[in-house]
Amino acid sequence: MGRRPGVFVRLVSMEEGRRLQRISRTAKDPVRLRRAIVVMMSAQGQSVRDIVSLMQVSEDYVRDVIHAFNERGFDALDPKWSGGRPKAINDRMRERICLIARTSPADWGIAAFSTWSLTKLAEHLIQRRVVPTISRETLRRILREGKVSWQTTTTWKASTDPDFLTKMHRVLELYDAPPADGRVICVDEFGPLNLMPRKGKAWRPRRSPRRLRATYNRHDGVMHMLAALDLGTGKMYYRIRQRKRWREFLSLLKTLRARWPGEKLYIVLDNFSPHKHPNVRAWAAVNDIELVFLPTYGSWLNWIESEFAALRYFALSGTDHRSHSEQNAAIGAYIRWHNTRTEPKTNFAPDSPIRTWTDYPAKAA
């Protein structure tokens, strides 16, 4: 068998030579880089056998690259990837998988369980011939790409208050445009204040969480905090008592009345029975205090709830107070810190859907 004839790249111009050199220095695609080097070496007069020896590729590969460059020019340097094996699970199947995953097994007449696991869902998809076969990992990836995630079921407590919207708009009106003749104050109870280890978060060395005792007793009983949030200043006022009867609530109202004499007080509060006690109502009416009750199951409209959430997070989370005096001191220290940095409360849920409600949604969306 005779020696194969020599093959060389066609005559390369000065500009093409610079382009080949640039590609050989900057190309990130390994296929494009290797082909450019083969062409450049051939243009320099090196034989196929020399290129094979230096590049460690086959002789047929070098000849194919040179012929392709002579025919198509620089387009021959770009790899032409094939489409690969067609998808076993097409886009329509994926969409249907995501839809089925969002249903309940009961919707398909399966009474044995109430929710899907990946294994059960995969078996169901195969049984229903949605897909010929599917692994758990592929199913997990399809659901993730389809933005279907594993979530905890939440509950919704619907209000039975026939005047829900009227009461809500009254509260929002006080928040948005406080009356010029008085002061808007949100009042609520916080507690019960147990003496117990409370879980929390803290910066710690990795895999070295702070440890709290798991057992505790209630020999010292519980206490309750009655608090008020002045929207005009953003400051909180509070008192901690052993009980939260109408007497303790009335005492708080008297304290608030004494703090702002001569101003009408608009007290936003929930429907806790001590708030509606006849003695409380009678005293409030005589002392220029308007009790503005929230809708039933509408405590989330009380602006002080967000302040309670912050107090719980920053003053109580991660603590293990051994006495009420110690715990009360921690609460007091936080509220003093809060009151030195606060500002008037404005813009209550400006973009919330509640602003556009024309009727009360009786169930979760």
UniProtKB/TrEMBL annotation:
Gene3D superfamilies listed in its UniProt record: Ribonuclease H-like superfamily/Ribonuclease H
Domain Tc1-like transposase DDE: 183-317
Matches recorded under InterPro entries: Homeodomain-like_sf (IPR009057), RNaseH-like_sf (IPR012337), RNaseH_sf (IPR036397), Tc1-like_DDE_dom (IPR038717), Transpos_IS630-like (IPR047655)
Membrane spanning residue stretches: none
Domain of life from the UniProt record: Bacteria
Pfam families in UniProt: DDE_3 (PF13358), HTH_32 (PF13565)
Record protein name field: IS630 family transposase
Organism annotation: Streptomyces yanii
